[in-house]
Request: fold
Amino acid sequence: MKLAARIPVAGRERVAKFVAAFAHHFWTGKSIGWVEVNGQPAATLTEQGKITTIVTLTTSGDSIGQLLWVMSPQKLGHVAPVAA
Reply:
């Protein structure tokens, strides 16, 4: 079972609290890598050689406009880790 917000989490403080609340789930035991998804860079979280999460972001000026977390195995099946 994957954890995800059912509605968008908006606002600097709310997003920071949301990400911090689930930090142990997202980061513990995972490696961070990079791929290109839909023509833009994305961070990957990999566990035991398998990508479990992709994170993309959009920016606006000097701030982050949106973080998009993809954790669905069906959507991650075509993404491969980039060899170092």
Notes: The chain has a mean pLDDT of 81. The helical segments are 12-21, 23-27, 73-76. The beta strands are 31-37, 40-47, 50-60, 63-70.
